[in-house]
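Predict structure. Chain length: 347.
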Amino acid sequence: MDEQQKIARAAVSGRLEQSSLELAQTAKDIEAGLEERYYIPLAEEASKHTSDSARLEDAKNEIDSLHRAAHSILQSYQTVSAMEDELKARTHDARRSQKHKKLQALNPPANGSIDLEEERKDHFARGMNLYKLLLLLAVGSFAGVIVEMLWCYLTRGYLESRRGLVYGPFNLLYGAGAVFLTLTLYKFRNRGYIWSFLGGFVVGSLLEYLCSWGQEVLLGSRSWDYSDMPLNINGRICLAYSVFWGVLGVLWIKDIYPRAAKLILKIPNRAGRIITCVITAFLIVDACVTAVALARWSSRIDGKPASNGFWEFVDERFPDSRMERIFANMEFGEASPAEEGQNYEQN
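Prediction complete.
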């Protein structure tokens, strides 16, 4: 590579580096000037208990000027730091794909390559549009249930339902988490892991708290309770699961999302729009039926009989045994229906 090519390759950031060195030297020169013009005279005036009003006014103007300069430099620092972080992340992705060519099928695609392919295609789910978010909602609702069931099996030795809807292995909490994580972390998809972790930590914790609070207010029930966990807030969230949300944020935006986006890119436009609408309609109906079934289940727990034929039909279709099997960890009041049944059998 000749010298001209080296200069051309270094020119993008080389000029910025040279300017920063000049700025650092300028700051040192200004500091020396401030000492001669202000620091020493002001110290002498303070020892003599006198003051020069003109110098004080000049000092105020200097302070304002330094404040504006500091603000501009801080903005420049943030911009340059973000560029450094993004270039590191993109370089890491490129090296990973080169290092593991034999395992390319197992490696997640780089977010940068997804972005480039989406820009070059007029795809129905390009960028962060509604179609992609609805598909991610469905994927997250399904994948979350599977992962939690496997986790339960690995840690407790048995399979237990982690569903959140009466039809199909779906839980909209996980789907909503996938959507919110994507919306929050999308701008950090080509940045370092720390931003993805912090975003997942905050967004996941907030979502979990709001969902727990909303379920208790609307349905009078709770699907999880962290009261016996350290550093919890009202039993709705705790530090351990917030850290888990942070790790999940990294895993989602760096691994799962690009895989899902790559698969979505393979769906033809016409078929993709139809599939998305059908899945969304199914989830809406499923969620409405689930809300009705849960409301009636709560009423049965309170000893309220069915008031008409509709609620009798709900009782027939969604008896306590079925609801307890679907919502294994749900609690109404002090004890879950499953626990009350066990206590009744023991007595």
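Summary: The beta strands are 221-222, 232-233, 237-238, 331-332.
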